[in-house]
Amino acid sequence: MMKAAVISISEKGRELSLRIKKSADFIGVERFCLRSYSDFGSRCFEDIGGLVSDIWDRYDALVFICASGIAVRAIAPHIKSKTTDPAVVVIDEDGRFVIPVLSGHIGGANALAVRLSELIGAQAAVTTATDLGGLFSPDSFAAANGLIITDMEAAKLVAAAVLSGKRIGIVSDYGFINLPEDITEDTSCKFGLYIGAEDKKPFSVTLRLVPKNVVLGIGCKRGTDFKTIDVLVRMALHNAKITMERVEKIATIDIKKDEQGMLQFCEKYGLELLTYTAQELMETEGDFSSSLFVKKVTGVDNVCERSAVKCSGGRLIMQKKAANGVTVAAAERPLILDFERKIL
Known about the structure:
single chain, 344 residues
């Protein structure tokens, strides 16, 4: 779920932020109100520029209820890249217009603006060309389907080709549904998409989209430090030709839920840690390596492979690797690409 900071600087803004908080169940909302117009359910601030500096990297979206100029000046020093900046949306205090101003596609500001406008009965002012024309947007498609854009220049060229009326080819290692009219499986197109983890360029101009659908299963001896875990994981992934960017989650047995080295690893890479009981892991179907010693200690014959498969619901793409008391395996979550899927 998208985590959004809703920022207001007036009484009308405070009331609207409260309305959004109570009704917007599709996002997680935290309210920030100017101290003069705050309430017990909000966090207070006195300087909007200082507030934005503090929270810029902590939220998926910033929703300003104020004049657009105030919002733009507050975010200007922090804007870096469309691939990393949070979504930024501005709403006037009367709740008439909802304007996405930053990270419309990848960050989800366009989709967020539309949903918020429906919620409060406002008009969404979306200005991006592909959205206005109802055309395929590679940025939006990638964000909605958990795909990594490997080349922003290629993404721009493909988007420009769509706007000029050209059909875009597709080659995918994964299944897909709801293919739009401007996308074709004809590989003779000049511009096209390749969706997969291989280094393929089937078109003259190829936008390579890599799925972020890998789950790492990790096991370790009690007290193993972060560096030991990090070194083995990175080495194993490198040898298996799996990039860290593809990893979406970490899984392990529940007795390791407070393992500090593993928690630090998750924190460094911004990954969620999921844990399972020994019984849940033993009930996971698959062809796994087995260790009597591990079973005696943990109650399950293999922690890393079983937890990776259990969490992903898919198949192993890297079998157990072990060194210095750490084991790691990788599994790939099944993926069906949907060209009609939305971020929100």
